What does this fold into?
Amino acid sequence: MSRTDISSAGRWRWLSGGRQRRQEEIILMLLCALSIPSILPFGIYRLLQGSWASAAVDMALVSGMFAVIVHVWRTGRYQIASLGVTIFYSLGMLTTVYLRGVSLVYWVYPTMIAAYFVLRPTVALAINSVGLVALVGILVSQLAVVNLMTIVVTIGLVNLFAYIFAYRTGLQNKELHTAAELDFLTGIGNRRALERKLAEHAQERRPHLESSLLLLDLDHFKQVNDQYGHAAGDKVLIRLAELMRRHTRSSDRLFRYGGEEFAIIASGAGLSAAARLAEGLRAAVASATLLESHPITISIGVTYMNKEHTPADWLAQADKMLYAAKQGGRNAVHVAYGSDYAESL
It folds into this structure.
């Protein structure tokens, strides 16, 4: 886990339930938690006033928000919960306006804006558009045309501005996230990106294809820097990254782990397939000219990403195999079969 992830996890530790949570989970639970004290007093007041239908709607919304908090807390499954919350909250808002009249139409605005915090902008806009049509159907007999059009236009503008803001913010976050996870020299993923991908694989609950982790290191790279200079060393790293792109599949993920050490997540590859991939890459590097008049080779350690172990275990095992390849004479591939057995190719 990176220092940024550790800091973020500590900040939200009180809401984590003992495990690292996605930002989307936290936002959804906070939104529901803030909605409960916002609605509950009105529900109690209407109960005391004998407005049973309106009170039932308010209490149903409070119960639904609480149920979502418990569900997301226990399972971490926020996608369907986010959609359900938005639809349920929108229906509650429409029912309230239908029962209490146009005086409560101002609840439409926070309800629709909240949708953009928990859903993709296009989905939120679609749900809010349907809600707006239903709202017009409720109010058409209660308001003059001019007043109704004023409400429609203002709600439409709020949705338009919220959509543009959410869409633009999403693009900026994606660009910043991508830039923060790219190695400045080679253009492939950096160590932060590797750690995130490994964590995602470990936390994935749905059945998915088996994968393997490869750690590779340039042999005697210090000699290259000492003899030819760091500029030549950088050129070797760039050429190696380009060669790795050519000799891996589109589903594989490439990373610069640090210095002259690289990593590959071989998606959908068991140990046998990953071993063949590693051997093909080793041979390609040995036969390529990464630096004129100086042969370059790599050593590779391979391990299976067993879900019974952690990303730290995978990295430690792959590093152990890489060390074995170095100790065995370099320009070699070592694969971890089981917990302790290694086979040299």
